Amino acid sequence: MSSITYARNEQLRTVKPNYPGNKLFGRQFANGEELYNPDFSNVFRWKFLTENPQKEEKKADTWVPEVVDCTAFLQGDQDGLVWLGHASFVLRSGGVTLLFDPILFDSAFLKRRHPLPCRPEALTNIDLLLLSHGHRDHLDEASLKLLARQNPTMQVLTGLGMAAVLRGMAPGLTVQEAGWWQQYDLHHAAPLEIQYLPASHWYRRGLLDMNKVLWGSFLIRAQDKLIYFGADSSYAGHFEEIERQFGPLDIALLGIGAYKPAFMMQGSHTNPHEAAKAANVLRAGHLVPMHHGTFDLSDEPASEPLRTLQEIAAGGMLRGELHAPAVGEVLRWPEWE
């Protein structure tokens, strides 16, 4: 029986009353109270034993998101939110620029279906790099190295256990780790508050590191608005907990893709119906979908996630306003009611 301990960054403020820290079973982080180890026999079942019932539909579906160049925004100083594809965003507020989960290059297993809306070299003047977790479609070594070179004063905000992973890639990085429900120390310089919050997911990059680095989501308070980056997560009770702690959110960035087959994906990601339910539970005024259209990670046809979500919104089942931007389109979020 693994020993049970709790971990947090003792240097940071914990915002949830009486929260003891993240539960560890031995050296493995848990999803709340429960240890979650994905069943990798499901990978074999998916790849070799299961026929995709939408195989032909998927093959014929060549939809990709529209892409517009965002270089001018990156080189300017105006507030805005830009989707770079997948789960990568640039958020600027009051002269502070945040970059979330950037994947700037193709790799052996990840081939972009659409171009990046800027040259990777345009991502300069990044103040804060927010890394939700260590999966390779959210943390890419080549991207991290380039960003570290181009942004020597950039600070990384991430979860417990990640600093050692990152310093193996870019040794000079300034990294601040947090447990769930903890607020990062931005040294009073930034007109922002950022908290690391729960997600229902898991971690693995190598053979022997299952769940040894924490995963999570982020909440940013900027200009009296609450902006939630849901990262990778299955649908779970943390959405209700977040709403109880913080009240209605203004903007939610939530994943809607990589959900089929359910036996493989439902422990990791939300489908469009679950994302809409999460946005409703969070009482989000605005929903910006992500984690679809950029990489081919699953069995659903490319256009299905966004089309389904648009149908949900059109049917009156989404309480907030849906924004489905082009990749690279600048969303003027401070102007949203």
UniProtKB/TrEMBL annotation:
Cited InterPro entries: Metallo-B-lactamas (IPR001279), NAPE-PLD (IPR024884), RibonucZ/Hydroxyglut_hydro (IPR036866)
GO CC annotations on file: cytoplasm
Domain Metallo-beta-lactamase, residue spans: 98-292
Record GO terms (molecular function): N-acylphosphatidylethanolamine-specific phospholipase D activity; zinc ion binding
Domain of life of the source: Bacteria
SUPFAM superfamilies according to UniProt: Metallo-hydrolase/oxidoreductase
Name of the protein in question: L-ascorbate metabolism protein UlaG, beta-lactamase superfamily
